[in-house]
Design goal:
single chain, 406 residues, alpha+beta, Aminopeptidase, Alpha-Beta Plaits, 2 domains, nine-stranded mixed β-sheet, six-stranded antiparallel β-sheet, 12 helices
Length: 406
Amino acid sequence: MISCSIKRMEDKIVTFSKFGDTGRGGITRLSLSPEALEARNEFCKRCKELGMEIKTDDMANIYATIPGEEDLPAIMMGSHLDSVVQGGNYDGVMGVLTALEAAETIVTEKIGHRHPITVVVWTNEEGARFEPAMMSSGVITGKFKKEVMLASKDTKGVTFKEALEASGYMGDIENRMNPNDYMALVELHVEQGPVLEAEKKDIGIVEGVVGMINYEFTLTGQADHAGSTPMKYRKDALFAATKVIGYLHEEFDKLDSKLVYTTGRITASPNIHTVIPEVVKFTLDARHQDPEVIKQVVEIIQKVPSEIEKCQMSFKELWSRKTIAFYEEYVDFVEKNANEYEYSSMRLYSGPGHDAQYISDIIPSTMIFIPSENGHSHCEKEFTPLENCLKGANVLLQTILDIDRK
């Protein structure tokens, strides 16, 4: 079977790691920042050298296309180039680089294909500069209202609209991907977890993305002096919050072992070391592929008393998503190709969200995972061996060619 080039793959990884290099093995490449624009420029330069046609849409998504031999819908592959603060060199960008390498192999090896083949770069997938995550694919698929997204601000007060207009990559709305013009999306991504490495698997065959809920809890007590208020008279919102978090963890642990849940953000007010906390807010993120388990999580949340340790408790859902299943035939193609290359593989669901989960609502889609060393991701220790990157590129290439032949 034909193989992509390991030397070209290495060159791509080394080159793109320079854009936003932190000097500690990782990158900070926030969406539409100067560093992100450098990466986009390099991507477009390489695509032009391959003779690809480049278009951008009104959300600055980039579509670089190799023409097909017939007038047929295009096959799309790709991911994103933006990162989190002090992120790694593999999250998102590896999906772009393996797609670019697959495209380069098709061009240099003169591999015939009936359908146009497009490499896509989605804008602001991470949501690290402008919330929410997966912003542009969400606008395209109707998950988010464009006017609301344009008003999203970064920490310096710059709106997404302002960054978009200044980027030089804002194109026409007519260039947006249209489900009538595309027949497939295959997105390769690093796993961002420890399972593939622990199970000694080269390729993850991604069956879908797990459903999740995100809630915010508020505990309200009374701010008083830390030195003169006896313990029995206190209404300590932080202490009450710890009780709620402990209760939730104990109850969730009684559910399915595949359930994962996180208290990722806590704020305390007035946040002064000599004052008893009056208001504490914390978030709860829970994920599982079975909707019934998520339903049980919500039922546990609803049973939390409205008063804890003399403090008032309330909660609200911030957002949620349902479990999605990828297009079965394309999932099977990924498995077939891993087997034909004699790469070890396993089926799994993705815990993190990806643009492919939104795009799967409008065109058949699937994903390919490659291992993350020690499960590290969204940090500077993020790493995937070069050999695994090449294996992913090979499976991606053959999957695209299978879809082209079907």
